[in-house]
Specification:
Length: 159
């Protein structure tokens, strides 16, 4: 099971910047605005706003690449795996009461699960694809030769 941040998450979870993982907002000026307002992750405390903005810009361009659900579906269709979205099952086993409440609502309103996958997080379950094994077909013997079991001998084939 894999939990992946959603592409359209309001607050980018790694750098804590609103919309910070979306391509139109991957700009130094955007990161500088939020850094000047004091928004930084746990590793950036004590840095200047310019340094926080520089690091966020660099991180966003080298480490953030959120895919759409369509892109995941296309990729998985090319792999020998079985997969499924499992946000509801993931929420149903949460230890957090609010998440359990959300799971109960999502169970009755399927559109909510799609919204969660789009704006909060994605939960993917992967399973190895079952292999189909074709039965072995022995090659056809040459013309005039027939293979029969000689039960009188020690189990060897005779021609």
């Amino acid at each position: 099971m894999h939990v992946i941040p959603a592409k359209w998450q309001l607050i980018e979870p790694h750098i804590k910047v609103p919309l910070g993982g979306l391509r139109p907002f991957k700009r130094t000026s955007w990161y500088l605005l939020w850094a000047a307002l004091g928004i930084c992750n746990q590793y950036q405390h004590g840095l200047t706003a310019w340094e926080v903005a520089r690091r966020n810009y660099e991180y966003a361009h080298t480490a953030l690449n959120y895919w759409s659900s369509r892109e995941y579906r296309h990729l998985f269709s090319t792999l020998p795996i079985s997969w499924s979205w499992e946000e509801l099952a993931y929420m149903q086993v949460s230890y957090k009461p609010r998440i359990l409440q959300l799971a109960r609502v999502a169970q009755r309103v399927p559109l909510l699960t799609s919204l969660i996958r789009t704006c909060w997080h994605r939960v993917l379950m992967f399973r190895k694809a079952s292999m189909i094994v074709e039965p072995y077909v022995s090659p056809t013997p040459p013309t005039g030769v027939s293979l029969t079991r000689d039960y009188q001998s020690s189990g060897r084939m005779s021609a």
